[in-house]
Design a protein that fits this description.
- Helix content is about 45%, strand content about 25%.
- It is of the alpha+beta class.
- A 3-stranded antiparallel sheet has the order 2-1-3, with helices on one face.
- A hairpin with a 5-residue loop joins strand 1 (about 1-5) and strand 2.
- Helix 1 (about 20-30) crosses helix 2.
Length: about 70
Amino acid sequence: MKVGYHCEECEEAVWLAVPRAELVWLRDRIHVAREVARHVQSGLDGWIVEGMQFLETHAGHSVIVTAKRV
């Protein structure tokens, strides 16, 4: 099973290799992740960066956490 974000308005999705709970956390706390990114020199995990990019691209849209069987 893969989980990811799906923009209901654009019909775009991104599938990230992390548990559903992590995606919910990032979606609900993207402001925290942005602040941490400003102060961390070693960088953030790749899934966080990819997830933030997707959420920022679709800001203001209805983005849900979804799953699909692989």
